[in-house]
Amino acid sequence: MITVTKLEKSYGRLKVLQPLSATFQAEQAVSLIGPNGSGKTTFIKSILGLVVPDAGEISFLGEPIRGGWQYRRDIGYMPQIGRYPDNMKIRQVFAMMKDLRGTNQSPAQSNYLDEELIRAFGLPALFDKTMQSLSGGTRQKVSACLAFLFDPKVLILDEPTAGLDPLASEILKDKILKEKAKGKLILITSHVLSDLDELTTDVMYLQDGQLQFFKPVEWLQDITGEVKLGRAIASIMSNERKSERVNE
Ligand SMILES: Nc1ncnc2c1ncn2[C@@H]1O[C@H](COP(=O)(O)OP(=O)(O)OP(=O)(O)O)[C@@H](O)[C@H]1O
């Protein structure tokens, strides 16, 4: 569904993505994990066309994305920090997004809106609040609802539960599981690995912009003997550190 080939990105002298290749298929829920600054958001933004890579190629459903934007209609994106016009009310943000999507869309496509999460979060009661007046968590809820709104084939979620209260986190995780069951491709980053346990089919681990591994979660569980993602990753990382010390 998405193929990334030898992707590279630097900011000045800092190599943020070393040549990185990966293929993502429908029905996968890929957890993109790595330390702060390892290049996860840069990788995601490259797929979304928000960061222009220095080298390499990304294709979506077999077509290179370079210079194109139509493919973005098939991707729902929840950014780490959503930015919205301060004075716009929540209802206006949703209306604006629907208007933008409504243009050049066939009636059949424009009819289907997934507003389940809007109701589950109780957002209609807050529709007349302006974006600048919202708490961080409520702003995150708006971002989440927009990612799911147009029933996209792919969901890219950057730290989706950060800032959400426990109930909202569970509501969002249930929604992600539901969309996963429909066979969508889900790409998700989080530092809260316990949030990923139920969801993950595959783990992509980045460090210093380099892909350390991209494997099914069962592989990770087998080689570490750990069921929980957090423990499995910790086990791999501490073994790597030990072997680095031996090689020093
Ligand atoms: N626009 C930019 N200009 C300069 N440097 C940047 C820019 N965007 C990202 N970087 C740098 O690239 C590196 C990777 O950043 P990125 O946001 O991709 O990491 P991350 O793995 O998502 O981190 P986190 O877990 O903290 O969200 C960091 O060192 C960051 O400072």
From TrEMBL:
Q: Which InterPro entries match?
A: AAA+_ATPase, ABC_transporter-like_ATP-bd, ABC_Transporter_VariousFunc, P-loop_NTPase
Pfam families recorded = ABC_tran (PF00005)
Query: Matching PROSITE patterns, A to Z?
Result: ABC_TRANSPORTER_2
GO MF annotation list = ATP binding; ATP hydrolysis activity
* Keyword line: ATP-binding, Nucleotide-binding, Transport
Using the record's annotation, list all stretches that form the ABC transporter domain: 2-233
The protein's superkingdom reads Bacteria
> What CDD domains does the record point to?
ABC_DR_subfamily_A
Its recorded name reads ATP-binding cassette domain-containing protein
Query: What organism is this sequence from?
Result: Rudanella paleaurantiibacter
